Amino acid sequence: MHAPFHRADEDIGNIVEFGHANIRVPDQQQALLFYMLGLGLTRDPYQRTGVDNAWINVGSSQFHLPVGPAQVLRGVVGLVMPDVDALAARLARVAPRLAGTQFAFSRQGDTVYATCPWGNRIRVHAPDPARFGRLQLGMPYVQIDTALGSATGIARFYRDVLGTQAHTGVDSEGVYARVPAGLGESLLFRETARPLPPYDGHHVQITVADFSGPHQRLLARGLVTEESDQSQYRFQDITDLDSGQVLATLEHEVRSMRHPMYARRLVNRDPLRDGDGFASGYEDMPIRLPERS
Question: pLDDT tens across 174-189, in order?
Fold first, then answer.
């Protein structure tokens, strides 16, 4: 019997969840002004509620913002938010309070480009079924700038070591390697001729289904940098599998599906329901639209 479905569209690969991007910030108050009042995101009410770290929810992913010397991701964090008009208005309101920092924002059509007080770049898209499926609120990609000629080797590393479905491609911005990471998220390594600043220690967190297989392959190449605990380890160098040359550096916090934080439901408020706009029963912002029947 012929099946009228493209079954490969349902394949996820070994990385089953993109958890967070971790970037140090020198001033938690300025960070909350930008991420919560400006972007309209939600501080996690259950984890890291003190003054030395803040976990900021965005759909099913997070920003982790521990206090310390500023870190700047070498690339762009892509977000999807349902109301870019309201977003632009919020960013305009916080602008005076972030004067004297690197904060900036602009809008081009349905995309808002924002820069945090320390130079991290955020690109916020309106929902787009053609690009992001049913996603209404989330972090569909983290784009990492990488050297010319590195994309093919990076994709191979993720396929052979991490067991992903990574692939390369070319678009209007140039050559890239895309690494699927979860139901709709991805790491996007984009080649650039611009000089890359030194790596400053920012990291991303992923969860994998096959936890021990990648660990054994990383360990054999001397790439494991931290044996965190029973359900977590770390690595940071992405290498050419033939020569061992480092193609990119980005610390990965790798968790198993037995990690207590895996698939934890995150609280996402609707920023339009703040103050006089409050409406009981409508406090939460949906992450995805429901499937059509």
Answer: 999 999 999 899 999 9
Instruction: Look up tokens 């070319």; give the residue.
Output: 170
Q: How far is 190 from 198, CA to CA, in rounded Å?
A: 17
What's the rounded Cα separation, in Å, for the pair 253 and 183? 18
Quick: pLDDT tens for 135-156: 999 999 999 999 999 999 999 9
Asked if pLDDT for residue 3 goes beyond 80, the answer is no
Cα(227)–Cα(147) distance, rounded to whole angstroms? Answer: 29
**pTM of the entire predicted model:** 0.96
Write the single-letter amino acid at 214.
Answer: P
Report the CATH fold assignment for 12-277: 2,3-Dihydroxybiphenyl 1,2-Dioxygenase; domain 1 (3.10.180)
Long-range contacts: 161-167, Cβ < 8 Å, 24+? 161/214, 161/217, 161/218, 161/221, 161/241, 162/14, 162/15, 162/208, 162/214, 163/13, 163/14, 163/208, 163/210, 163/213, 163/214, 164/13, 164/14, 164/15, 165/11, 165/13
What are the C-alpha distances in Å from 164 to residues 122, 126, 175, 254, 288?
26, 28, 19, 14, 24
214 near 14, Cβ under 8 Å?
yes
